[in-house]
Amino acid sequence: ACYRPGETVSFTADALPAGAKIRYRTLNKVISEQAVAGSSWTWTAPATDFTGYLADVYRTKEDGTEVILGTIAVDVSSDWTRFPRYGFVATFDASKTESKIQEEMAFLNRCHINGVQFQDWHNKHHWPLGGTREHLDAVYKDIANRDIYTQSVKDYIRIQHSFGMKAMFYNLCFGALDDAAGDGVKEEWYIFKGTGHTDKDAHTLPDSWKSNIYLLDPGNAEWQAYIAQRNDDVYANLDFDGYQIDQLGNRGDRYDYKGNKVNLPKTYVSFIEAMKGKHPDKRLVMNAVSSYGASQIAGTGKVDFLYNEVWGDEADFTDLYTILKANHQYGNQALKTVFAAYMNYEKGSGEFNMPGILLTDAVMFALGGSHLELGGDHMLCSEYFPNTRLQMSDALKTAVVRYYDFMTAYQNLLRDGGEEEKVTLVCTDASKNLNMNTWPPQKSAITSFARRVNGKQVVHLLNFLSANSLSWRDLNGTMPEPRLVTKVPLKLNVAGKVSKVWVATPDAHAGASQELAFEQKDGTITFTLPSLKYWSMIVME
Question: From CA 243, how far away is CA 506, in angstroms rounded?
């Protein structure tokens, strides 16, 4: 999933024709190139840390044109949280044999997923381990009364580690089940709807489940010490790399046992600090549900990236931009953002709608975010992570691999800083009938979003020509496939001399960059864009 500088990268490929060559590029620059013989070979990762590469296998035809035969990205980063690509697992029953887990994680690895969130893995929110520190249960029930096999949890962690992925366990910062008193959880730790400590705040769940979830005060020092010790039991038995902390958004006015009003976002700060204090070597991430508590969470300086679960109150593509911009500030320009964004949420069954998924990923990735969506055995369609009501088509699986290759290969342009710029692009061929605008997006238009990154001008073109909505959610799976446009003559104003123009897209040419012929005069530059399906990235050096 990611390599340390200087590590050996091993490649395998199917059915390479004679005369095939492989080259390694960072952005558009070729680092090295070699002939390929046989179906496997190695490459030494360069010494520069936190860099994305694209390896492409190609051959040259008799007329001198190149044919790309295959591509794959390589992330050379010593710390996964610099460019987090987050996935999940949520089922740990008898069907999860070692070979099944290996197959699932191989797919996540092909998408360069470098961190995995374990959802619905635990026994009880206040007692996550199945069994005790000294005596683990081989099988226990989760909150929904599903079977959880301890061996499956262990196998997932071990196999993820073999792929260079990190494993993060999920839990609320303030959850307890109805039997918590018997496990040592005190009445004085809860939060209540009124001042008389009689009506505990609760998240209600179906009757067939173990219990409702009752909420505690995350700022209560005794509760913090209690749950930190339960986490210690977890870490002593399961080789997790950190804790994915959850909350439930704005609860309205809530009170502690003594009748004092509880400021939840403020309590998140002391909770995060207590967890880091107990396990300084473990990673922490905390969910900001509908951005609730986002600035406080980021301000701790103790979380490794920012995680926003987005809902109907942040349903538009423009909301994603607003969140990324705010997070950039909250995290001192240092923390990346992962969106937990559930696609096709109201579609009852069948397959995910590929145009909706790809347009949302295109926007998230172009703006500098990433998307928690890929599980070992299914894609995410609901906040209940084990829900498998929608399937990925083979075409979507193929496309998703390309998109994750693209996000990884070009991470230094997409997710590594830079200053936003306004640029105006004009299509110089009126017969193409193309409406072009700068961000924010408009229906029936091609929207551009531009950044200056390390002296390069990067312009993302996002295709809303056929969009029936400007919401990322594609609730019912009705987003139409965008109209493909090809050979688009473009003109834009640029400052300074341009030495090179190139384009890359996850939708064509297997994500490999193509250099473009261009003309520059009187402060403008003209060139022809080969194609735009969902998203094309133009880079001027």
Answer: 32
